[in-house]
Amino acid sequence: MRAHVSLYQFGADAPAYPSIVSAMDPEKSAPIGWGALSGLAADPNDANTIYAVSDSFYQDARIFTIDISTAPATITSFVNVTGASQERLDLEGIAIASDGGFWLASEGHPDNGRGHLLLKVGTNGVVEREIALPDDLIAQGERFSFEGVTEYEMNGQAMVAVAVQREWKDDPKGFVKLALFNPADDSWGFVHYPLDAPASPAGGWVGLSEIVSLGEGRVALLERDNRGGEDAAIKQITVVSLNGVTPAAYGEALPVLQKRMAMDILPHLSAAKGWILDKPEGLTITADGRLILVTDNDGVDDAPGETLLLDLGPAARLN
């Protein structure tokens, strides 16, 4: 993006920006520092509370508590994630754990020694469990890996699904893995998800940014390209069902899911008539059934720097 001119008109009922701010940090006597929000989870008991994580742009990995009853929404508190085996985490996904605390997805990076990790942490941010993928699969890993995470129920058991963003070395072109973890026996299973082909005139790639349980074995996925502005073409929510699908152990042929395009979110990202942000990264469903979306501002490093927290309306729209 080289240069642009913005035109403004008076008459809006409310300001379109900012959509999220932070309360004061009592230890620093300054607003709570935040940025690079990359995953969302909703409090199952409080429709006005959601949680977010920040990625590796910052040294400290954080879980933020957000009050969405205000306009703009307000980050009211945070905890640092501590006790991990590696020095720096790249948190890209967060989900509520049914037995308390959170599941976190930390994106690995083969070139700098960061592992692809599923973490179970307490509400205080302390890591309780660290779960890695099978070694043979780790050898196939790429830079674009763990993104969203969600807990869902299958055959009466709590399961954890992690979305891998882009193809790994062992994936056919246009197919990415959903990694399904069973906490009862610490086993992994895998399925393939078919990505849309890039549709932007500027090319680029398409991948997954988030996964959210809809109940009854269905999950919603945030699928997007990596283009912004007038080149943005694919920013969408799809739905797949895991019912009747038997995940395969690594090394076996993976079943392919059937997806349904449920919502085009480009109109929501372009509603303010400004630059269309390329990174919608977090999605969740509140306790009262609203779809909440957040964009990742890359810590304002070589990026437009905006963060949009958007209410996309009733989650029933995905049915």
Automatic annotation (TrEMBL):
Any matching Pfam family: Phytase-like
InterPro entries named in the record: Phytase-like_dom (IPR027372)
Domain named Phytase-like: residues: 33-298
Protein name per UniProt: Phytase-like domain-containing protein
Taxonomic lineage from the root: Bacteria, Pseudomonadati, Pseudomonadota, Alphaproteobacteria, Hyphomicrobiales
